[in-house]
Amino acid sequence: MQILREDDSRHFTGCLSLSKRIWVNFPAAVNLSDDVFRDCRSLNEFHLTGDGGLSAIENGKALVRNNTELVAYPSASGSVKLDNITKIGGGVFFCCSNLVSVSFPLAINIGDYAFCGCVNLVSTEFPLAVSIGKTTFGACQNLVSENFPSAVTIGKNAFSSCQNLVYVDLPSAKSLGEDAFDMCTNLTRVCFPASVKLSDFVFTNCLSLAEFALTGDGSLSVIEDGKALVRNNTELAAYPSASNSITLDNITSIAGCAFCGCSDLVSAGFPLAVGIGEDAFMDCNNLTNVNFPLAAGIGDGAFYCCTSLVNVDFPSVVNIGEDAFCNCKNLVSINLPLIESIGRSAFYRCNKLKKEELPFLAGIGSDVFENRSFEIFSEGRKESRKEKRVFESSLFDFRDEDCFQSDSKKTIADYSEAIRLRPDDPVYYFNRGQHYSESKKHEKAIEDFSAAIHYSSDELKRKLKIFHKRGMGYMEVKDYKKAIDDFSESMRLTPDKAESLFLRAKCHALNGEHEKAKVDLAELKLLKIEAHKATEKFMVELSIGLQEKV
Length: 550
Description:
This protein has 550 residues and is α/β, with parallel strands linked by helices. It is 23% helix and 19% strand.
């Protein structure tokens, strides 16, 4: 089979259509890369010919290399226990939504994305695993308690979006990667050595995390009754559950994302802090008061989307990074008497700030109010915190018609690049789907909305009305049954159901289900939705005998 060369990695990735051909046939000697069969969930039989390093196990459903490395198991379901496997390749179980439990007594290495998207996975056993890769358990939404007794390195985004994860024990850990527990919103306790090498942003948006349990000696320690993590007694590394008013007198620097997403934080005072890290207070949308008398530098995105800030004073600040106050829409005044440099987009969407009333801007430039949009990609930058802020800023743009980007072709390409970098981020799929809808590419829009649904929590599905959007796509392609299902699910998730109810009535009518259409219209009438006078005309035109006015 020629196409499975080293340079053809991921050649079958996402081939859900393999449901029509549930087996593949190629030589056992083929040079097979990681991710070749990622997301081919209906592929349940590998046929190998000749001699070579590859062999099939699990009744032909799984592929192994040299009898010890699991290379592919795209149709895995239920409980899987493999006693002889020492290494799990990248993406092996990607999006195996029917997988419930796994046990690998001898596995030492778990590859990137190995279990990403296994939304029903509830139990794991890896007693000897030393290495956990990038996004290995990303979006495993039903994991609750995890213990990796031998794990030394935890990769970037390793447990990102495990939204039901409550407790994690990592007694042997030496390093925790960036965003390792990003969006683990129910995580309450983590245990690891005080000597661990901790990246910035590890506990981003872990709003319930109220206990850091440290073992042994090291540079890390806890304050605030175990709720906050400190490095070398002076650098605040993380305080994800911070709320109300806090004052920390001994802290001289604040690490990246230390308070990211702390929506209950109202006031923050740091009398001795000199530096404020990247995204330090990002999305603290109820933060109204900050006190940093000695701070000299404010990092990129430090106060991004702090929408309750109105008046701020930084008497010692010299440098402000990119996006520092981006989307602080209620910011009216800012005092920066010693400022020397301000990064691009630092005040983008701070619409209440008036340039003419900011004398410190003289000689600095006006791009501090401009949107740098998707320049990070054209500049050749790779995955970064800045990427996350750029796309979150674009999500605001979707809700603001004046800011909606008209160049859909370019924007779709940008989102495609973002998805390549972060393939488990539902917002990117949702936004690209929006643009596909605007471009009348409804089949592609449906695919993206489906991916967004797959990776989203119920809260995000409700917030973005993803089912409603996909239902509209199904209407456009005249798949009324699926549209009806989606509008029904949308109504289940949100009390604001009038629009979905109206469109479901239309779909029932177009699908010949006139009695069901009448029921929906009667419910609309009970809701006193006066805006739907057009419904009557629509139904009359379809001659379904509707007599009463809506």
